[in-house]
Amino acid sequence: MMGRRWRVGIVGCGMAGLASAVALARRGHAVTLLERAPQLAPVGAGLLLQPSGQLALAALGLLDQAIARAEPIECLHAWTHRRRTLVRLAYRQLDANLTGYGVHRGDLFQVLHDHARDADARFALGVTIASSRQTDGEIVAVDDAGNDHGPFDALIAADGSRSRLRSAPELEASVREFPLAAAWFSGRSDAVRGRLHQVTLGSRQLIGMLPVGEGRCSLFCALPRGGKEALRQRGLNSLKQEIVALCPESKSLLEQITTLDDLACGGYQIVRLRQWNSGRLICIGDAAHSTTPHLGQGVNLALLDALSVASELDRADDVPTALARAAQFRRAQVMWCWRLSNWMGPVFQSEGWLLAAGRDLALPSMPRIPGIGRLMVGTMSGLHTGVFARLRCASLKSPSVLLAGAESIQGAPSRRCDTDSL
Ligand SMILES: Cc1cc2nc3c(=O)[nH]c(=O)nc-3n(C[C@H](O)[C@H](O)[C@H](O)COP(=O)(O)OP(=O)(O)OC[C@H]3O[C@@H](n4cnc5c(N)ncnc54)[C@H](O)[C@@H]3O)c2cc1C
Question: Which of 21, 107, 263, 311 has its CA 20 to 30 Å from the CA of residue 9?
Fold first, then answer.
């Protein structure tokens, strides 16, 4: 049952913003997306769409389109530089029907963008939102030239890991820059199929290859301190030699990189908010809980956040209460991933050797400890929300448990996640 028709401002056209826009605009809410980029273009490399993210897209009725060009991924297989298995986690350890998907970001972006547009969401591009201002019963977004946008009944801050909206004092944001960065590239290669392939050299180097369907493959590698600048001084050829020595499968992809500008580079912010919402404002996605990407959950969490906020707003009579409920519900699910990601960051990417040595000793045997293997796969899948807390079959069959009423927005949960043995 639909509640009132709200005016909703959404800051940021990433995955969290676009998914919120689709869910809300389709239900008749007046949605305005405010995006700093003057033109929308699909950017970025590959991402691993986990069963949790599949569930969110299925609830929006978009899963089949989102994975139409994607590569089914059976497992994560990580190796040491000596070609010993560091860890192999297969989705079928949890359930025979479960799989991940290697998806090109551009493909997912396009599906979400087209559905938001078709549902009459309004796009305001080239607008950088710097702050918000709440008055009785309304909220406005203020851009960096001092212009107001709105008024809205609710404002969703989906402006990513460097969010400016989360600086509202009530949210008590703590933001830390991870000292190291990563570079990534998308090209054509069939050298790795059906798995996320990773190779580590201590914690100094981490190379990953993720096939994203139709002969496309995404490559990422850890960068040392100094990021792209340090890379320029060192030279592209030396980086290529290091990568191919560790990961010969990357050879044909590397041949497609002709200058350093072909590589996208970025750092990570580690963000924690004491609360995600304040009155009519809520932060979601990376704006609320950005962390290092080593657990590969960011997009999946962002999609689930979007759905929870949309479903709470859709059935609400009161916006601040709806946003508080969504924040409380999602926070409990997100914190497990957030803590683990923060722990994994330095273990997989840091300048010391001790953590990596411990990892190389302990990790290969961990999946064989009773219960731990399933916990690891459940966490990778986004289905575990704590050591003893996981989204059981019942919650997958009734997304209300998982998504706080998302089934009231769209469709049925994913067939791919709909199993009895989870
Ligand atoms: C190297 C790397 C690999 C990753 N791999 C994975 C993976 O395999 N799986 C996974 O799930 N996640 C992965 N992630 C994490 C994932 O990319 C993020 O968690 C996810 O994109 C967050 O989505 P979002 O919508 O919250 O933010 P974003 O995608 O960052 O979108 C934010 C949007 O807001 C806009 N914006 C920013 N500031 C403003 C402003 N002031 N005003 C208006 N607009 C603004 C931006 O232009 C952008 O469009 C990876 C991240 C990195 C860095």
Answer: 107
Q: Please state the pTM of the whole predicted model.
A: 0.92
3-class DSSP state for residue 102? strand
CATH class, range 7-176+268-417: alpha beta
Task: Give the nearest ligand 1 atom to 284 CA.
Answer: 26
Identify which of 273, 338, 329, 263 has the alpha carbon closest to the alpha carbon of residue 300: 338
Expressed in angstroms and rounded, the spacing between residue 13 Cα and the centre of ligand 1 is 9
Which atom, in ligand 1's list, is nearest to the CA of 12? Answer: 34
Residue pLDDT, tens place only, 303-357? 999 999 999 999 999 999 999 999 998 887 899 888 888 888 787 877 778 888 8
Report the largest interatomic distance among the alpha carbons of the chain, rounded to a whole angstrom. 63
* Dihedral sign computed on CA atoms, order 195, 340, 11, 279: positive
User: Which residues partner with 48 through β-bridges?
Assistant: 102
What lines the ligand 1 site, CB under 6 Å?
A: 11-17, 34-37, 47-48, 128-129, 158-160, 164, 182, 184, 220, 266, 285-287, 293, 296-300, 302
The tens digit of pLDDT for each residue in 65-91 reads 999 999 999 999 999 999 999 999 999
CA 178/CA 174 separation, integer angstroms: 13
Q: Show the tokens assigned to 205.
A: 């180097």
Domain locations in the chain as residue ranges: 7-176+268-417
Cα 113 to ligand 1 centre (Å): 15
Q: Does residue 401 surpass a pLDDT of 70?
A: no
